[in-house]
Design a protein that fits this description.
This protein has 433 residues and is α/β, with parallel strands linked by helices. The protein has 13 helices and 24 strands. Bound molecules: shikimate-3-phosphate. The site of shikimate-3-phosphate (S3P) has 9 residues, from helix 1 and helix 5.
């Protein structure tokens, strides 16, 4: 299952300039792929994520009886199983994808049959108790291996629950909602901090009814889903690397077309504005209830200021924190990140790896259990970067490398393909040297 590791040399840039249209959002593609494969009929998606993670979701759903056809670049047709899957006679491989494993567990728990979910070495280290607990409360037969994958599920009818998530997690919320979709009665998920709401919007687009309150979402089952046609918005978490790259070079400007601007995902734009960047939304429309727009960023002439990210902000920005920390030494006042303990259980321990790699580049940082403090006004030098096979670490440090003195070597650069296979080509396109 091991792909060959790849090294990439990133040379410093003078400027970042151009316009980009990015492949489809990873979170939305997972949901459209999974729901289309579960629904009745044939769905058609354009600008579907090109990342390996979403391919893992499609492969699992194919093993469960759905038909997936790649029509052209980013165009995927999915014929669903009409609400009842065929158990596979082999484990379902979720690859590196926590979203696939946690969400599919909720989809499968109410289905007849036995299922085993496995993943790669990184996914096999990640916490799964957070999905076992609510599914077991619903009556599912679900077992883990010391809190981790492999996850085995003895599926069957469940009972509706009212569940409060102990850590903010859209994956856990989705897991419970997908089980609730197929369960008699009303299942409610309550969360202290609002997480991304793509599942709620996608379930509605596929014909389900949900009710939302300030801090909860409820679904009454069982309900059937129908197929849809949809264009997936560009991935704002992929755009994050380019937004941060542009922000580093006074006068740089980048334009993004058809970018997903769901308010539960677009907090980075507020943070970059607070750091002094000029962000303009040039066009805004709604597609299947998801906001999509064109966004332009212009970097401030005086350089980036400073900011602190904590509390609800940390949860909303969880995927963007590595790149924000990686550009922090180049700000004037630094960036402090707290309340982000979840970073330690992502594809890697992202706090430890960000600290290690920033130090390798000569930066001074203070690491906390739940965050990192990176002072501003620092000069970094090129270094050898350990991606830890984590896509967001590989890309975050490719961005930091653009402002370093000398070349940077990214080890494990192939990890970028987990979410964004086009990353290095696009970086070459917009980084002026
Ligand atoms: C995701 C939710 C987040 C995020 C991940 C994708 C999703 O994870 O970090 O990259 O698609 O629902 P958690 O739900 O575990 O916070």
């Amino acid at each position: 299952m091991h792909t060959k590791t790849e090294e990439r040399v990133i040379r410093p840039a003078r400027n970042v300039y151009g316009s980009l249209r990015l492949p489809g959002d990873k979170s939305i593609s997972h949901r459209y792929g999974m729901l289309g494969a579960f629904a009745e009929g044939t769905s058609r998606f354009t600008n579907f994520s090109t990342g390996a993670d979403c391919a893992s979701t499609l492969a699992c759903m194919t093993a469960l009886g759905a038909t997936v056809s790649k029509i052209a670049d980013g165009v995927v047709e999915v014929t669903g199983v009409g609400g009842s899957v065929t158990p596979a006679d082999h484990p379902l491989d979720c690859g590196n994808s926590g979203s696939t494993m946690r969400m599919i567990a909720g989809l499968l728990a109410p289905q007849a049959g036995s299922f085993t979910l496995v993943g790669d070495a990184s996914l096999s280290r990640r916490p799964m108790e957070r999905i076992r607990k609510p599914l077991a409360e619903m009556g599912a037969g679900i077992t883990l291996t010391e809190g981790h994958a492999p996850v085995t599920i003895e599926g069957g009818p469940l009972r509706a629950i009212d569940y409060t998530t102990p850590v903010p997690s859209a994956q856990v919320k989705t897991c419970v909602l997908l089980a609730g979709l197929q369960t008699a009665g009303t299942t409610t998920v309550r969360e202290a901090l609002r997480t991304r709401d793509h599942s709620e919007l996608a379930l509605r687009a596929f014909g389900a009814t949900l009710t939302r309150d300030l801090d909860s979402v409820s679904i009454s089952g069982p309900q059937a889903l129908h197929s849809i046609e949809a264009q997936v918005p560009g991935d704002i978490s992929s755009a994050a690397f380019f937004l941060c790259a542009a922000a580093l070079f006074p006068g740089s400007t980048l334009l993004f077309d058809s970018l997903g601007l769901n308010p539960t995902r677009a907090t980075l734009l507020d943070v970059l504005t607070a750091l002094g960047a000029r962000i303009s939304v040039l066009h805004l429309e709604e597609k299947n209830a998801e906001l999509v727009g064109a966004v332009q960023i212009t970097a401030p002439a005086e350089g980036l200021g400073s900011t602190e990210i904590s509390g609800a902000l940390a949860a909303q920005l969880i995927d963007e924190l590595p790149v924000l920390a990686a550009i922090a030494p180049y700000t004037r006042g630094g960036i402090r990140i707290r309340d982000a303990k979840e970073l330690r259980v992502k594809e890697s321990d992202r706090i430890a790896l960000v600290a290690k790699n920033l130090r390798a580049m000569g930066a001074e940082v203070t690491e906390f259990e739940d965050g990192i403090d990176v002072p501003g006004g620092q000069t970094l030098h090129g270094a050898t970067i350990d991606s830890g096979s984590d896509h967001r670490i590989a890309m975050a440090f490719s961005v930091a490398a653009l402002r370093a003195q000398g070349d940077t070597l990214i080890q494990g650069a192939e990890a970028a393909a987990i979410s964004f296979p086009e990353f290095f080509d696009l970086l070459d396109l917009v980084a002026e040297r």
